[in-house]
Recover the amino acids of this structure.
């Protein structure tokens, strides 16, 4: 990444195609109310142990929640995302967003990264080269220039922190209690949206549901079991394990 970066959207619609868009809790409710499908993505780590990226310690701790796992404890991070395996359901025939004024926070922030430990790299984005050759300065001296955009980034990070307990409660209410180890993979669920909406409408309960880690690496399984963690490597039925 250079110390200076410009950006102007070309309206190509590529960022709205084939991407599952992370949603805040309130946005997930609206998505469900509008007959959209939500995908639930879960990863976990042991505080100051396996799965925790030391360089991102503060960031991952703030957006995670402690849950029981076997005789020990893990911290889970849960993402509710708009399920978009193809074109976003809100794109019109001209690749324009039909909910532009109410679009999710992450869409408003794009192409900026929300994780403070991930630099903005044009090569990792779907935008055409000309998008980075025009428009106002976006990054200067590795700092985000637009104060309004910076406020949106901070709002997204804050929502991650405020929503995590309720997201975990929804997962537990729907039996979505198998995670993967951060850095090794994640688990993905496609819940029934009627049940998902009902769980969202409930008051979160202080449920001490047992969680499980899906791990397929045999040496890693043994080391995690030594920590008293509950592990499975059985083929999943109600979720997908996406390994790295």
């Amino acid at each position: 990444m250079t110390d200076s970066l410009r950006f102007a959207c070309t309206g190509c619609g590529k960022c709205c195609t084939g991407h599952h868009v992370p949603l805040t809790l309130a946005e997930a409710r609206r998505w469900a109310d509008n007959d959209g499908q939500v995908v639930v993505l879960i990863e976990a780590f042991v505080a100051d142990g396996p799965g925790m990226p030391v360089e991102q310690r503060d960031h991952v701790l703030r957006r995670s929640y402690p849950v029981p796992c076997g005789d020990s404890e893990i911290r889970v991070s849960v993402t509710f995302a708009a399920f978009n395996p193809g074109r976003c359901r809100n794109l019109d025939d001209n690749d324009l967003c039909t909910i532009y004024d109410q679009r999710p926070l992450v869409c408003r922030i794009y192409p900026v990264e929300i994780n403070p430990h991930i630099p903005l790299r044009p090569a990792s984005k779907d935008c055409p080269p000309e998008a980075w050759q025009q428009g106002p300065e976006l990054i200067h001296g590795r700092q985000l220039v637009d104060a309004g955009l910076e406020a949106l980034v901070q709002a997204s990070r804050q929502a991650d922190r405020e929503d995590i307990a309720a997201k975990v409660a929804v997962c537990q209410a729907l039996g979505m209690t198998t995670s993967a180890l951060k850095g090794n993979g994640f688990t993905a669920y496609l819940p029934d949206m009627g049940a998902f909406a009902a769980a969202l409408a409930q008051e979160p309960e202080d449920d001490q549901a047992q969680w499980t880690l899906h791990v397929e690496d045999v040496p890693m399984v043994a080391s995690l079991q030594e920590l008293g963690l509950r592990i499975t490597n059985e083929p999943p039925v109600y979720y997908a394990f996406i390994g790295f």
